Structure formats: C-alpha cells, structure tokens
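Lecture 7 notes: from sequence to structure.
We start with the chain below.
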Amino acid sequence: MSGFKYDEMVQKALISVVRQILQEISANGLPGNHHFYIRFRTDHPRVKVPAFLKERHPEEVMIVIQYQFWNLKVFQDKFSVDLSFNGIQETLSIPFSSLTAFVDPSVKFALQFTPSFGVGDSDPTDSDRISIKTEIESDGKIISFDSFRKK
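Predicted structure tokens for the same chain:
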C-alpha cells in the first residue's frame, strides 16, 4: 500500500519558504530589523565551510545573516554566502538538507528541522527516511508538526 509522503511534502514546503526568503534578501537586502539565525550540520557531506569552523563545530553551527554578509547566492538545493571570521571573508556553501533551524527573531518566526542526509549524500543510516520537527512561532503561539508525525 502506498500513501502520501507527508514528511517529504512538508520538508519541501518549509525549505521552499527558507529558499524564497533568502532569494528575496539576495535581490533586495534585509528589510527593516529582519535578521536570521541559521543553524546547520557541519558534518553534512555537502557542507563546505572553512576548516577552522568545522574543527570548532564538528557537528552543528549557527551563522547570523544581519550586518556583514556578502555574495548571498541561492540555488535549488543550497545557498552560499560570504561571512567575516576574525576579519577574514570566507565563503560557506550550505545545502538546505543540512539545516536544523531558521529563525528571524525580529518577528518571532522559527522553523526547526531534523536534517536528513538523502540519497547521494553518503550517510547510509539516514538515506531512506526524512524526519521533520517544525515549530512556527508567531504572536506567542507555537505549532509543532512533530506531534502529528508517526513515531
């Protein structure tokens, strides 16, 4: 019996939201007080970050997109951005499948993901499943899709 793959549908929809936001920022800059905290898995096989960053944060790291970022480029499956670390500009390439959180604290908006390393990402333990934990916080209300998921 085949059914709907709700986890995959929701994951694609939420990644689409992040992609659209980043595309808007890439084209027009950050409006008002908006800024983003983006957490991602540094151990994801397609993440490209400077060696020192991976050494300090071997599993997960958070970056801030606010005042000092350059060359934000958004693709279907990833984004790249230049950030400054100790005065040195470095390029990061971050697949959307590595994201663990996307937060815009200026409007109390948050998406939380449990990343999956899909087929071709070289993590055999996760290649046949997508796991999602999502929270959207707006006006103090939190909706968690994880509670609806089959365990």
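Points to note: Residues 6-148 form a domain with the SH3 type barrels. fold (CATH 2.30.30.220). The chain has two helices and nine strands.
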